[in-house]
Amino acid sequence: MDSVFRPHITLGRFKQKLKSTDIHELKRIAALLKQDEPLRCTTMNLFVLESTPTSRGVLYKPISEFSLGG
User: Which tens digits make up the pLDDT trace of 9-53?
Assistant: First the structure.
């Protein structure tokens, strides 16, 4: 198991397992953040999550939150 700290960015509205459309949206947002361009989207909360592998799967713990204004 890989226990290296990896921050994850996910939308606050995601409560259940991610669907493929959600993953596509996250990749799009991550690409925009990497390019450091203005984000053209509705206001949303983003969470940076710490992932910790456990025997039951991966545990995600929010470590910070920020909002994006559209």
Answer: 554 444 456 566 666 777 777 676 666 545 454 445 566 666 677
pTM: 0.29
Q: Is residue 35 in some structural domain?
A: yes
The 3-state DSSP class for residue 42 equals: coil
Residue 41 CB: number of other CB atoms within 10 A? 13
Is 2 among the domain residues?
no
Answer left, alpha or beta for residue 57, where phi above 0 means left and psi between -120 and 50 means alpha: left
CB atoms within 10 A of CB 20: 7
Q: How many domains does the chain have?
A: 1
Q: Tell me, yes or no, whether 55 lies in a domain.
A: yes
